[in-house]
Amino acid sequence: MPEPKDTEVLIRVHASACGPGDYKLARGDMAPFFRMKFPSPMGFDVSGVVVKVGQKCSRIKVGDSAYANTAFTLGTYSEYAICPEAHVALKPESIDHVTAACIPVSGLSAIQGLRDYAKLKPGQKILIIGGTGGVGSYAVQIAKAMGAYVAATASQPELVLGLGADEAINYREQDIGEVLKGQDYDVVFDCVGGAEYWNAAQKFLKKDGVYVTLVGDAPNKPLGVGVVVTTLKAMVGRKLGAMLGRNPTYSNVMVNAAAAKDLVELREYVDSGKVRVLLDPSAPFTLETVYDMFEKMQTNHVKGKLRLKVRDD
C-alpha cells in the first residue's frame, strides 16, 4: 500500500471517471512534454474514503468521504490512491461515490473557466459548445446559476434544455454562426475544440467579448511538435488581434487542481440541487474493463461522464 507524504492523503478508491485527457495520456500523446515513463499509473478523478493522512495535513481526516482531482499524481484507476491534501475536499453528501467521482476534473474545468477566464457576469449571454459533454454539462448549469442567458450546442437538444439551457442548437442540423448571427454574445465557452468554432463565433461574439477554449484547434490529434506549433501560432495571432481590437479576447483554460475551495463550491451546487451530474447511459466500467472505457471515450459520442466503479459504497 502506498505511503502518503507529509502533505498527502491516502484514499481507498471507490470510484474514478474518464475524460478525453485520460485516454490521450494513455495513448502517449503527452509523453514528450511531461517526461512520462510507461507503464504509468492512470486516472485523475477519485472519490473514496481517506484511510491515512500525512503529518502536516489539517483539513482532511481519516474516515472522511472525499473526492479530488489528483492532477499528475495520477493513479486513481486502482484500489488506493495518493493525493495532495490541497486537491481534496469532502464529497457531496447527496450522491454516491460513483457519481461524485465524475465531478472533479470536469467540474473544476467548468467553474474555473467560467469564473476566472470568461469572468461571466449575471445577465450576460454565453454559448457553450458541447453542452452535454463532461465539462459542458456542468458549464450549462453553473452558468445558469451565475445568472447568465445560456445557449448550448448538442446533438440532442432536449438533453441540454433539461440541464437548464435557455436555447439549444442542434449542431448536426444547424449552422451555429448563422443561427446566432448578429446576436451580440458576451462569451463563447468551447468544450469541443476546432478552428471552425472560433471562425463561426466572429459572426455573433462581441468584439469586446471573450472566447474561452479547453482544447484549442486540434482536439483529436496527438500532441506532437507540429500540433503545438500550429496551436501556438493561432493562439498568438488571436491574442494579438484582441490587443489591437480586431477580434474578441481568446483564452485557453489551464485547470488548477489544487483548488479544494472550488470542490467545496461544486459540492454546494450539487447538494443544493443547482447542479446535477450527467452520467452517460452506459453502465459503470470496472478495473477489468478500463480499455473498453477508453474506446467508448474515443467515439466522441459520450453524453455526460463515463465512470469507473472500483468497490461498493
Strand percentage lies at 15-25%
Q: Tell me the name of the CATH class of the largest domain.
A: Alpha Beta
Number of helices: 11
Q: Given the helix and strand composition, which structural class is it?
A: alpha/beta
Total discrete domains: 2
Q: Write the CATH fold name of the largest domain.
A: Rossmann fold
Ranges with pLDDT <50 over ≥5 residues?
none
Mean pLDDT: 93
Task: From the alpha carbons, calculate the radius of gyration and give it in angstroms.
Answer: 19 Å
The CATH architecture of the largest domain can be named as 3-Layer(aba) Sandwich
CATH superfamily of the largest domain: NAD(P)-binding Rossmann-like Domain
H/E element string? EHHEEEEHHEHEHEHEHEHEHHE
Helix content: 25-40%
Largest sheet: 6 strands, antiparallel
**Distance, first to last CA:** 20 Å
**Global morphology:** globular
Beta strand count: 12
Could you explain how this protein is built, in words?
- The chain has 2 domains: 126 residues, Medium-chain alcohol dehydrogenases, catalytic domain (Quinone Oxidoreductase, Chain A, domain 1); 147 residues, Rossmann fold (3-Layer(aba) Sandwich).
- The mean pLDDT is 93.
- Helices cover 32% and strands 23% of the residues.
- The protein has 313 residues and is an alpha/beta fold.
- The strands form 2 sheets. Strands 1, 2, 3, 4, 5 and 12 form a 6-stranded antiparallel beta sheet that branches. Strands 8-7-6-9-10-11 form a 6-stranded parallel beta sheet, with helices on both faces.
- The chain contains 11 helices and 12 strands.
- Helix 4 crosses helix 5.
- Helix 5 links the parallel strand 6 and strand 7.
- The relative contact order is 0.17.
